[in-house]
Amino acid sequence: MDRQPVLEGERLLLRPLVAEDWHALFAVASDPQVWAIHPQHDRWQEPVFRRFFADAMERGGALAVIDKSNGAIIGSSQYKPEGNGAVEIGWTFLAPSHWGGTYNREMKRLMLAHALQFVERVEFRVGECNLRSQRAMAKIGGRLTDRFDMVDTPSGPMKHVIFEITRESFASGPLNP
């Protein structure tokens, strides 16, 4: 599976994240509101975000999310290989100006449609206390599994619940075009 494709929808263009995107992406990420209920709530701070950005560049699979109406970077998301017929979509954030509407749905629809050509299942890890992201997962057809991960973070261990969307559930779900 190509983890850094170019994907285009009605409102969004997703393309591979490159080092030159640092300033534009940090301009979005530097808003504390973006991270207020996120498990890594200090990611708006430059040294913390630099580690996040460097990790995304090193790992591969990171995409810049661009608003086609003005060409501005409004966030990012990543694909991470999971094995066993699955890939993870995660590390997603959008500018608050693009919350609560069609942007997250379109981004996830594009990413899921691409991934499910190659794998049977897509997983999403969401911070146990991140209710906004959990509600967003439910809206796009994510099914909460009984699995979870404990993740070591700079602020201590953090529990992440795991949602999944299968090829079959995507075909019959709310994101099916």
Question: What does the model show?
Answer:
With 177 residues, this protein is an alpha+beta fold. The protein is 31% helix and 36% strand. It is built from six helices and eight strands. The protein has helices spanning 22-29, 32-35, 46-59, 102-115, 131-139, 167-171; strands spanning 7-8, 12-16, 62-67, 72-83, 86-94, 121-127, 143-153, 156-166. The chain has an eight-stranded mixed β-sheet, with helices on both faces. The radius of gyration is 15 Å and the shape is globular. The model has no long low-confidence stretch (mean pLDDT 91).
Question: What's the gist of this structure?
Answer:
With 177 residues, the chain is of the alpha+beta class.
What is the rounded distance between the termini?
A: 22 Å
Q: Stretches where pLDDT falls below 50 for ≥5 residues? A: none
Shape: globular
Strand order of the largest sheet: 1-2-3-4-5-6-8-7
Order of helices and strands: EEHHHEEEHEHEEH
Mean pLDDT: 91
Percent of residues in beta strands? 35-45%
The count of helical stretches stands at 6
- Based on secondary structure, the structural category is alpha+beta
In terms of topology, how is this protein built?
Elements: E1 7-8, E2 12-16, H1 22-29, H2 32-35, H3 46-59, E3 62-67, E4 72-83, E5 86-94, H4 102-115, E6 121-127, H5 131-139, E7 143-153, E8 156-166, H6 167-171
Parallel strand pairs: 5-6
Antiparallel strand pairs: 1-2, 2-3, 3-4, 4-5, 6-8, 7-8
